[in-house]
């Protein structure tokens, strides 16, 4: 079955929030200007947003049994010799959480041809699963969610853990302790999705633009348009050769992209353009972005991104992966030669780096006054969580180290960290979103074509953008996050774009972007009353290392802890000094 879209529930709005919506509806200028001035005032107390964008995990893959872990004695985390930690949930943990356990779909009651099974902490490095646009739709089987083994499993691969029906495997808190503890201490959604079905590049583009249409194919060497649209790069092209991205082509405006096949460039506007036009500082920081050979030193004038690392399974992979960097697809926000910022003071502002940086550059500014208002962080490959070359243990090291660093910064007091994922990797998840964007092309399965026939809109008239797609983890970690809270509002990757637009007053992207219609993440925050505690974790095993602060957030520990509201933004009192509240 398919689902007609449900309108996002209205949030109680004051006069300032109504004026914000008026700004948002006005659209955005087509030409960006430099963001070399101070950041604009914000509509909430959040002055710094850090978006940690990880790879290829479904919600059930990490949270199938949350908050209950097996706690098997004697287990160790793969490749580390570290004992797997035991997890015990707070007594105030919400009970209304959409997991495999709560849905009664753990073995032996699952409709798939292989039953769900627990992956142990020693089985962290596994085969990658099939996460193609159409195959994910087929796995949904019209909403029955019972054809994952037939459509997205990859059971074996060289040198990695595999098993029959591997796609049905899931981890619990003994392996992903860090994320389970962040869910305990801050806010998590059990109803957040990729904006469309498909792999990494569509997810990355949706995060920054809510849009995967507008792609053209280019020669990888000359960076000139191909004589005809490349069918891998451009799907359903129009007469001008412009179509939609459903695969993982490399970006044209990037020296480190492959030269073996056509590359992709995007028309249109992204959130970086809006922030530039608004005078708001921002940056994308990615592991391995700093070249090992500069363009100036390379014989062909192209920078080389040659840094590598080895994961806990002993596998070595590149740190920088071009098709994970969405801003390199847009000429307006690209840094083709991977040039460094002209100075630390210019990080977040417009110079030769054009807002695209190495992860080490974030460490230079996180403690200072010139930390960008909006920062997107991408781990080096071996720590991004993507099956086959990364894993949940290496991922946890990155997440905890990075979040601890932010929490130790003077900027933490007005920062929100969002942790979300680009796609599900095809891993099994039992929950389907209400479709809000249909498609009816040769690339779609019946799930999406039937939705189009039933009247679900095709935004902008652009095909191959069916969604929301697969369900993935989404957490908010902030002094202003509700604590031990699970939100049920349907959201997607472009909900982050929407929050940025609304908080900094940039206006909307337009042209069929999903930003305007995405569900709001505001219910995950408490902008009224006291703030949440600062909870730092141990990066080795994800256990709690320290807790500071009172932690008497209205929706956290204490009398309201564990109580579920409707997921629609219950008011908690008067506004808090430091920003104009959205909620």
TrEMBL record:
Q: Looking at the record's lineage, which domain of life comes first? A: Bacteria
For this protein, the Enzyme Commission number is: 3.1.4.3
Q: What is the lineage of its organism?
A: Bacteria, Bacillati, Actinomycetota, Actinomycetes, Micrococcales
Checking InterPro entries in the record gives: Alkaline_phosphatase_core_sf (IPR017850), Phosphoesterase (IPR007312)
The name of this protein is Phospholipase C
**What are the protein's GO molecular function terms?**
phosphatidylcholine phospholipase C activity
**Keyword DNA damage among record annotations:** no
Signal peptide interval: 1-24
Q: Where is this region: Disordered?
A: 538-583
What start-end ranges are recorded for coiled-coil regions in this protein?
none
Q: Where is the composition biased (Basic and acidic residues)?
A: 551-574
Task: Report keywords, A-Z.
Answer: Hydrolase, Signal, Virulence
What is this enzyme's class at the first EC digit? Answer: hydrolase
């Amino acid at each position: 079955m398919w689902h007609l879209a449900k309108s996002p529930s209205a949030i109680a709005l004051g006069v300032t929030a109504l004026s914000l919506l008026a700004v948002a509806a006005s659209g955005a200028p087509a030409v960006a200007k430099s963001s070399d001035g101070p950041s604009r005032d914000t509509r909430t107390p959040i002055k710094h947003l850090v978006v940690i964008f990880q790879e290829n995990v479904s919600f059930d893959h990490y949270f199938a049994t949350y908050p209950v872990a097996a706690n098997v004695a004697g287990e160790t985390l793969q490749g580390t010799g570290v004992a797997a930690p035991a997890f015990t949930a707070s007594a105030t943990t919400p009970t209304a959480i959409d997991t495999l356990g709560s849905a009664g779909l753990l073995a032996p009651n699952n409709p798939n041809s292989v039953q769900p099974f627990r992956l142990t902490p020693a089985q962290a490095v596994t085969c990658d699963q099939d996460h193609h646009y159409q195959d994910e739709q087929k796995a949904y089987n019209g909403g029955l969610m019972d054809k994952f083994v037939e459509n997205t499993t990859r059971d074996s691969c060289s040198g990695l853990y595999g098993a029959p029906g591997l796609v049905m495997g899931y981890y619990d808190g003994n392996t992903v302790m860090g994320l389970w503890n962040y869910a305990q201490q801050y806010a998590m959604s059990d109803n957040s999705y990729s904006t469309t079905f498909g792999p990494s590049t569509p997810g990355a583009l949706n995060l920054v633009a809510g849009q995967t249409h507008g792609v053209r194919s280019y020669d990888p060497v000359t960076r000139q348009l191909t004589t005809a649209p490349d069918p891998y790069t451009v799907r359903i092209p129009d007469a001008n050769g412009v179509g939609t991205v459903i695969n993982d082509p490399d970006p044209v405006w990037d020296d480190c992209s492959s030269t073996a096949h056509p590359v992709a460039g995007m028309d249109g506007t992204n959130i970086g353009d809006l922030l530039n036009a608004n005078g708001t500082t921002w940056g994308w920081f990615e592991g391995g972005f700093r070249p090992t050979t500069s363009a100036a030193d390379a014989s062909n004038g192209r920078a080389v991104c040659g840094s590598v690392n080895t994961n806990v399974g002993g596998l070595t992979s590149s740190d920088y992966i071009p098709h994970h960097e969405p801003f390199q697809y847009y000429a307006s926000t690209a840094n083709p030669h991977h040039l460094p910022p002209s100075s630390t003071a210019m990080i977040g502002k417009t110079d030769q780096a054009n807002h695209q940086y190495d992860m080490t550059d974030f460490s230079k500014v996180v403690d200072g006054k010139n930390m960008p208002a909006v920062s997107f962080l991408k781990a080096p490959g071996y720590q991004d969580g993507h099956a086959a070359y990364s894993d949940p243990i290496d991922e946890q090291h990155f997440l905890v180290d990075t979040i601890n660093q932010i929490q130790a910064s003077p900027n933490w007091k007005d920062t929100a960290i969002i942790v979300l994922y680009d796609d599900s990797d095809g891993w099994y998840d039992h929950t389907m979103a209400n479709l809000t964007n249909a498609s009816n092309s040769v690339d779609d399965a019946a799930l999406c074509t039937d939705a189009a026939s039933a009247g679900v809109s095709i935004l902008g008239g652009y095909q191959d953008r069916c969604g929301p797609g697969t369900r993935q983890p989404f957490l908010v970690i902030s002094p202003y996050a509700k604590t031990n809270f699970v939100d049920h509002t349907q959201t997607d990757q472009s909900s982050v774009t929407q929050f940025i637009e609304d908080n900094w007053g940039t206006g909307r992207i337009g042209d069929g972007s999903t930003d305007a219609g995405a569900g709001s993440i505001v219910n995950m925050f408490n902008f009224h009353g006291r703030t949440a505690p600062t909870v730092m974790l141990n990066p080795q095993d994800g256990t709690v290392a320290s807790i500071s602060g009172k932690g008497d957030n209205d929706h956290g520990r204490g009398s309201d802890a564990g109580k579920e509201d409707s997921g629609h933004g219950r008011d908690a009192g008067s506004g808090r000094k430091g920003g104009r509240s959205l909620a």
